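Review form for a predicted model. The reviewer records the input and the model, then writes brief findings.
Reviewer: anonymous (R2)
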Amino acid sequence: MKAAHRVISSYAVKDVDARISLLESAASTCPAAFNVYNALGYSWLEKGEQARACDAFRKAIEQHPDDKAGYCDLAYAYLAGHEEELAVSYFRKAIEVDASAAADLRQDPRLTSLLSKILG
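Model under review:
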């Protein structure tokens, strides 16, 4: 429960370093806490640390392999790093895990040019 509170509290923390510290504390307390690694990954992306963001998103996938969010988040991190093929493969994996991901991706204007590759 303590880890979940830290994750929720992190959303109000503006300072990215403080947010990362709070989220890392939550992850060490309870690695399976919902959204801890996803939030940590986006914080690392905000800081410009793509490799660390990808590591966090991979941990999210390890903890919750049946949740499309980790796969989509990792795909977005790869897209931010201009690694289009890796992004496409993780978007496809998200759809394999949860078919509703396809509808989510169709709604994202950032993906207009990639939809044919993602959806086949």
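Findings: The longest helix spans residues 16-29.
Further findings: Residues 1-49 form one domain.
Recommendation: see findings above.
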